[in-house]
Design brief:
This is Lipoprotein with Yx(FWY)xxD motif. The protein contains two helices and 13 strands. It is α+β, with helices and mostly antiparallel strands. The longest helix is centred in the N-terminal third of the chain and has 23 residues. It is globular, with a radius of gyration of 16 Å.
């Protein structure tokens, strides 16, 4: 594999680590301006082997806590696309009510059976899984099943579905609904 294809991916991941570390240490308030998104050059390059479904090229599912700008610190997959939760789901025990047609509009964020996602800025104690009615294993955060919006353009840009029907919300690293600052 050409090393030039890997450079933007590793640069993006290193930048993401620095942003998350700065935010966690309280240094983010001292920065001139918080990053509003992962830079455009960090989008996965199809020729690099990087996947675009929230997993790495090695098919490792990823959950990153990142500063999104208007929604604050939120959770994304490894491709930088926002993850959502549904108010219709249950957390005790975790269960998904989004099946059939719903799961085509809101794709469950899944892992292989027994696999755990790579975490950055997300407390491992809050991450779990549930077995869906179709037998797939869906990732949960603080008990909330996680979903992806297939229309998400990436770059931490909400496709306008945050708060849709007062049910679908971008999720924070604690499993809470993201809220725009007032």
């Amino acid at each position: 594999m050409n090393r030039q294809h890997l450079r933007p991916i590793w640069t993006a991941r290193l930048s993401l680590v620095v942003v998350v570390a700065a935010a966690a240490s309280g240094c983010a308030a001292e920065a001139a301006a918080p990053p509003s998104a992962i830079p455009a050059q960090t989008a996965p390059d199809p020729s690099s082997g990087e996947q675009t479904d929230g997993h790495t090229a090695a098919d490792e599912p990823v959950l990153y806590a990142v500063q999104s700008g208007p929604l604050g610190v939120v959770v994304t997959g490894g491709d930088g696309r926002l993850l959502y939760r549904s108010e219709a789901d249950d957390t005790a025990p975790p269960s998904s009510r989004c099946t059939d047609a719903c799961s085509r509009l809101w794709q469950p964020f899944t892992v292989a059976s027994g696999q755990q996602p790579v975490l950055l800025g997300v407390d491992p104690a809050l991450v779990g899984t549930l077995i869906r009615s179709d037998g797939t294993t869906q990732v949960t955060l603080a008990g909330w099943p996680l979903y992806r919006d297939p229309a998400d353009p990436g770059g931490l840009t909400d496709s306008g579905r945050h708060g849709e029907n007062d049910q679908w919300f971008v999720v924070t690293p604690t499993g809470d609904r993201a809220t725009a600052p007032s």
